[in-house]
Known about the structure:
This protein has helices spanning about 25, 50-55, and strands at about 5, 10-15, 35, 40, 60-65, 70, 75-80. By secondary structure, it is of the alpha+beta class.
Amino acid sequence: MTLTAVLDLSSVRISERCTACGNCIITCGPLALLPAANKPQVVDQRCNGCGECIEVCPVGAITEVDQRTVDVRTDEPTWPVSGQTP
């Protein structure tokens, strides 16, 4: 059984429109975006929801996610929340 809680935490999701230009990685102060093969990997626990990565994305591939459901035993995000997808 998973114990979950909805927390008011901001994070971002990167869509398939991402061109892997790297602008978001360079801009991310808390280092919540890491280089990966096709698009950056989001580290939700580091994201502070500032939105700077959204502003610098030339193709609009990054969107904010306002809430996450978190397994309170492991602190791992579980999806979806209110129809949102990762």
